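Predicting holo structure, zinc ion bound.
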Amino acid sequence: MSTRRDRARALAARFPAAREALLFYGEIADFEGDWRELREIALRHGPAMLRDAASRLTAERIEAEPAGFFARVLARRNPPVVRVVETGVCPSCGHPPQVACLRPEGHGTVFLLACSLCRREWTFPRGHCPVCGETSRDNITYFAAEGIPHISTRVCETCGRYLHVVNLEKDPEAIPDVDEVAALAMDVWAAEQGWEKVCPNLIGI
Ligand SMILES: [Zn+2]
Ligand SMILES: [Zn+2]
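Done. Tokens:
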């Protein structure tokens, strides 16, 4: 049983605009097989571009593209949280964050970034930018995602990069890398503003 798949299906029912993206993400989010099985999933459930890549896939091609879709899915794990690290890239594998989250802790919440490759979460200063190192809170702006009260979009006005923040205090069932797919409409809106996501997710959004 896949927790991420269940979560993706539940969100797909709530947020029709992101339904297709969520259902596909649900199929790959907890994937644990080999590359041939992954190719089958991509051929069956993937968007057209991915199906095309899957039809020509070899182990060599995966190795040659470590930041590509297939290599990223195969590299995923569920590692523990890392404490007290102030780095904009994953302290384990050096990849950029996919999403941020607020997890309840004590009487408040702790702000964490989650790795786009290995999914490790690490603590990061709430008012800093993981991309350009901006440390002035005034230049970090939060926008509410319409209709999704537990997600907001966090933009650095200095470098124009953004990521979604999943608030687990507001929705304890949330799984950050799954829930951020539900904020698809915010990605479209952010692109219209000229902002760039810190790192596109596995399905290229
Ligand atoms: Zn990592
Ligand atoms: Zn920045």
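The helical segments are 3-14, 19-28, 35-45, 48-55, 59-64, 69-74, 176-179, 184-192.
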